[in-house]
Amino acid sequence: MWRDAVLVATKDLRVEARSRVATNQVLPFALLVLVLFAFALEPDRGVLRTASAGLFWVAVLLATVLSVSRSAALEAGDGGRDALRLSGLDPAGVFLGKAAAVAVQLVALEVVLGLGVVVLYDIEPTGLGTLALTSVVATLGLAAAGTLYGAVAAGLRVRETLLPLLLLPVVAPVLLAATRASESALGTGVAGIDAGQWLGLLGVFAVVYLGVGVVTFGSLLEDS
Q1: DSSP conformation letters of the chain
Q2: Which residue in 1, 31, 66, 142 could disulfide with 93, CB within 3.0 to 4.6 Å?
Q3: What pLDDT digit, counting tens, does each position of 137-181 carry?
C-alpha cells in the first residue's frame, strides 16, 4: 500500500510540475481572493486583522476545491481511470497517494498565502508552532476529504459544479476549527480560546476521512 501511495503521489506531483496548473491558476486565484477581501475591508484595518485567520482559511478552502478537481481530472481522459483500475495498484495506496499529492500542493499554497496575509493584512505572525501544526493537520483533513469526494463526483458529467456542493459543507468543521486555532496562535480571537481543543477536532476529522478513504476508495474507483 505504501509503495503504491508513493508511486501515485510522485506521478501526480510530476504531472503538476509539468503542467504548472497549481502555480499558474490555483495560487493566483487564492491570492486574488485575499486581495478582494483586503479591498472589501480596507476602511477598517482592525476588522481586517481580526478576521485574517478566517479569511485565510476561506481562501485555502476555495483553492482546495480547485486542487481536488484537478487531481480527480488527471485520469478522466484517455481511459486513465480504467487504466488505474487495471493497474493492480492497491486502492488504499491510490487514495493515500492522491491525497498526499493534494496535501503537498496545499501546504506550499498555504505558505505563500500566509506571507500574503502578513503583507496585505498587516499581521505580526506569532505562535508559529501552533500555526504550523494547525496547517498540517487541517491540510491532511482537507486533502483526505477532497480526494474522497473527488472520486464520488469523478464519474458524473456535472462534476465541476457538483464537487463544491459536496465538499464545502463537509469541510465546514475544518474551517471553524482551523480558524479558531489560528486565532488563538495570533491572539486575534476571543480571549481564553484553547487551541489544543480545536487541533484535536482537526485531528479527529483527518483520521476519520483517512480511514474512510482507505476502506472505501476501491469501491468508489470501480463505481466511477
Answers
A1: -HHHHHHHHHHHHHHHHHH-HIIIIIHHHHHHHHHHHHHHHTT-HHHHHHTHHHHHHHHHHHHHHHHHHHHHHTTTSTTHHHHHHHT---HHHHHHHHHHHHHHHHHHHHHHHHHHHHHHHT-----HHHHHHHHHHHHHHHHHHHHHHHHHHHTSTTHHHHHHHHHHHHTHHHHHHHHHHHHHHHT-S-TT--HHHHHHHHHHHHHHHHHHHHHHHHHHHHH-
A2: 1
A3: 999 999 999 998 888 877 666 666 788 888 899 999 999 999 998
**CB neighbours (10 Å) of residue 185?**
22
For the record, the C-alpha cell of 134 comes out as: 494547525
Among 136, 153, 4, residue whose Cα is nearest residue 68 = 153
Contacts of 42 (CB under 8 A, 6+ apart): 48
pTM for this predicted structure: 0.88
214 touches 163 (CB < 8 A): no
Question: How far is it, in rounded angstroms, from Cα 138 to Cα 206?
Answer: 7
- Which cell is 87 given? 493497474
Q: Decide: 58 and 36 in contact? Cβ < 8 Å.
A: no
Q: Is the CB of residue 47 less than 8 Å from the CB of residue 136?
A: no
